[in-house]
């Protein structure tokens, strides 16, 4: 591959990684409290809220990430007793997408960057 092609790919990866990071920050700030309201019966969400509420914006990001992980691995969370059965179904679909999509996009961009770094350069 030529140097110009490598430069274009690297710039593309950096720009979209930065955009996904901004998307994570904005969606965490706007939707964490709203989503926690729908999942108020969950012991996991209640404990995270109590523990991380005094941590400021970093605590908000951690709470948002933990709720996104609950939606990515729901069977494990239900079997461990972190969330009641079918409680995750109470969240509207548009909020579920707004919770999970930024984290998935950030993860995909991170792994694409690692793949490019290890195998293409």
Would you mind describing this structure in some detail?
There is one protein chain. The relative contact order is 0.16. With 121 residues, the chain is mainly α. It is elongated and about 55 Å long. The protein has helices at residues 3-38, 43-52, 56-72, 74-79, 93-120. It has one domain. It contains five helices and no strands.
Give a brief outline of the structure.
The protein is mainly α and 121 residues long.
Amount of beta strand: under 5%
Q: First CA to last CA: what distance?
A: 9 Å
Strand segment count: 0
Computed over alpha carbons, the radius of gyration is 17 Å
Helical content (DSSP H or I, runs of 4+):
over 70%
What's the helix and strand layout?
Layout: H1 3-38, H2 43-52, H3 56-72, H4 74-79, H5 93-120
Key features of this structure:
single chain, 121 residues, mainly alpha
């Amino acid at each position: 591959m030529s140097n110009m092609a490598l430069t274009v790919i690297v710039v593309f990866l950096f720009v979209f990684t930065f955009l996904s990071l901004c998307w994570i920050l904005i969606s965490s700030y706007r939707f964490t409290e709203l989503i926690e309201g729908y999942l108020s019966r969950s012991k996991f969400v209640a404990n995270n809220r109590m523990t991380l509420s005094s941590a400021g914006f970093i605590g908000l990001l951690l709470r948002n990430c933990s709720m996104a992980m609950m939606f990515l691995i729901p069977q494990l969370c239900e079997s461990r007793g972190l969330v009641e059965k079918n409680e995750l179904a109470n969240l509207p679909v548009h909020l579920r997408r707004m919770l999970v999509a930024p984290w998935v996009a950030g993860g995909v961009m991170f792994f694409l960057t690692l793949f490019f770094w290890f195998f293409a350069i």
